[in-house]
Design brief:
This protein is of the alpha+beta class. It has helices spanning 2-23, 32-37, 246-254, 280-290, 312-320, 339-349, 372-380, 406-420, 425-428; strands at residues 40-49, 57-61, 66-69, 73-79, 81-87, 94-101, 104-109, 113-118, 124-131, 135-140, 148-152, 158-162, 165-171, 173-179, 190-194, 199-202, 224-229, 232-240. The chain has a five-stranded mixed sheet, with no helix packed on it. The longest helix has 22 residues, at 2-23.
């Protein structure tokens, strides 16, 4: 009888253990029994980052066993089971993760972690792209030029170089700079915060009798555009004298419409930023200057809460003059202005009558496209053209929602001034709406 009871207890215990394993209730050492018989397969992890350097990733299964790496491409062998994938997300970057089985994308994730079940057989690939959703530019300058520096940015990134320089499309966050003039004492650290679609400028004037700088011949000044502003010649170090937009930049800069970047004291930094997008707030200020509109006539504060402090009068004036783009007080004034928004604002400020839209000039501009009247009026008067391909051939599209950079803005302003600065409404063949 005792042997029979023992056999029954052993059978009962075995049944409970088998049930526990099947239900997955065991973790720790007991779960290793399942791993010993589970199929083992390979998973490939690939990653690319807008900042260049790879990030740390990890795979953790239900037993808390961890696999990790930080190579651009890495293959790991793991047993079948339930896993959670994690990727370190550098500040200023957003992940886009493709979970692929064979040649098919099973799921796309925009968060830095997700869970999945692996059968230990199927070929799996996890492709990670760390994208810069929002970015800005950081400019480093000095007087005299040719000064070494160290610039620290978000996520531990360190930039080294010699002034002047501009970093294109860098992540948002706090940047700190230390100038390291040879033969002189290093400058105190300066810091600033880079915000969406903006530009952060660092500038310093160093007075030191023993300073050593690169000769002008080594500072790449040949072939750059020089403009006359406020009675002084200013070298624009980011504008080639042979660029297609050089003439337009010279004109708007010397007329004081779009002068380039300045430091806190109002002195030119020698940087125009031709590829920088024009924000809506900047658009308001630029158009006031181009059309000779007095922003000081604004009688009250702006209604839009996103108005930057320097643009208060310009936004208030645009709102009170019923400029269409600024009539919506919820629009984000710090985002890039679109081609349609730029044209309707400029034409409205210049008091140009608009044509009735036909929807026939561009494939992507229908009669009901927002600001179609302004787009067709500008195009019909050779102020703007449609989009061309890499060979210069017209595509038939205009891109009404595309952003406008400062080089393009310079051309548009000069074309509008040339065409509508002297013509009457009758000469433009336009109908006033």
């Amino acid at each position: 009888m005792k042997e029979e009871n023992t056999d029954m207890k052993t059978h009962h215990l075995s049944s409970l253990l088998l049930s526990a394993i099947l239900l997955g209730t065991f973790s720790s050492p007991c779960s290793l029994w399942a791993d010993e018989t589970a199929p083992v397969g390979s998973i490939t992890i690939e990653q690319q980052s807008a900042l260049g350097g790879p990030s740390i990733w990890s795979l953790v299964n239900q037993d808390q066993t961890k696999f990790a790496g930080n190579a651009a491409t890495q293959q790991v062998k793991i047993p079948a089971g339930n896993y959670t994938f994690f990727i370190e997300q550098p500040k200023g970057l957003s992940p886009e993760i493709l979970f692929e089985s064979g040649s098919s994308v099973i799921h796309t994730y925009t968060i830095p972690q997700f869970s999945f079940q692996y059968d230990g057989i199927s070929p799996i690939k996890i492709s990670v792209s760390l994208l810069m959703k929002d970015s800005g530019k950081v400019s480093v300058n000095s007087s005299p030029q040719g000064i070494p520096y160290e610039l620290k940015g978000p996520s531990g990134f360190l930039y080294k170089g010699t002034t002047p320089v501009t970093y294109e499309a860098v992540p948002l966050g706090v940047y700190s700079i230390t100038y390291l003039p040879e033969g002189c004492t290093s400058s105190p650290m300066k810091s600033g915060s880079l915000k969406p679609y903006s530009r952060l400028d660092f500038d310093i004037t160093i007075q030191c009798a023993t300073i050593k700088v690169k000769p002008a011949s080594e500072q790449n000044v040949e072939g750059l555009l020089t403009v006359s502003m406020d009675g002084e010649d200013v070298l624009l170090r980011d504008v080639s004298s042979t660029a297609w937009y050089a003439t337009y930049v010279r004109t708007v800069a010397e007329r004081g419409i779009l002068t380039g970047y300045r430091n806190a004291d109002g002195n030119p930094l020698g940087m125009f930023g031709p590829s920088d997008p024009v924000t809506l707030a900047q658009l308001a200020k630029i158009v006031h200057a181009a059309a000779n509109v007095n922003e000081k006539e604004a009688a009250s504060a702006p209604a839009n809460p996103s108005t930057p402090p320097w643009a208060t009068r310009f936004i208030a004036s645009a709102e009170q003059r019923d400029w269409l783009v600024f009539s919506d007080s919820t629009v984000n004034l710090n985002r890039p202005a679109t081609r349609g928004e730029v044209l309707v604002t400029i034409l409205q400020a210049f008091n140009v009558p608009l044509r009735w839209p036909t929807g026939t000039l561009f494939k992507d501009v229908a009669r009901r496209t927002q600001y179609a009247s302004a787009i067709e009026t500008a195009a019909s008067n050779d102020i703007v053209d449609g989009i061309t391909d890499a060979n210069g051939n017209a595509t038939g599209n205009f891109g009404p929602g595309d952003p406008v950079n400062r080089a393009e803005m310079s051309k548009i302003l000069m074309k509008v001034s040339e065409v509508f600065g002297k013509k009457t409404p009758a000469e433009t063949g336009a109908l006033k709406l």
